[in-house]
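Task 17 of the worksheet. Students: predict the tertiary structure of the chain below and write it out as structure tokens. Keep your answer in the requested format; marks are given for formatting as well as content.
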Amino acid sequence: HGRYYVETIAADVSPELQVQMEALALSFVDAWQPDTPPIEELAKFPSNGLVPYSRTLIAKSAFGLERLDWIFTARYEDQKDEALAFICERTSAQEATALADAFHRYWMDYGGEERVAPSSLPDARIVTILDSFEIVMVHGAYLVGVHEAGTLAFGLDLAGRLKRMIEESSQ
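Model answer:
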């Protein structure tokens, strides 16, 4: 949390203790505001449906794809679905496009089935694999997408909101 690193370790295994440890960690986060500048990519995630404290950075080999590094992720939920949104800024639109192609090909190589993109997201590349959906798009130098969406409707809605946030922040 900013310049602070806090770890809680329990001497026993119990659901009650787990709840108390989580409450302690959340209290710390709420009480201490980091003095480091905010990370721009984190502001690009839509707030609606965002699971609190779920934003992370994956430094390398995200989702098992070696080339997919330095991506920010955030978990989203509604009453019946969940998915992981991701944002990855590259050095150029060409690099982002090449990475989107690699992401798409990766899921296809593992037995995924390509889905047709809807007219609302014509540049989306969609793969269904293992009862979930992978969606990837490019906006300028940004690779954006949704990983392991439970339903296509939820994944497309999240991908659309994520893309709009990227577009608005680029203006």
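Marker's comment: The mean pLDDT is 90. Helices lie at 15-31, 93-109, 152-170.
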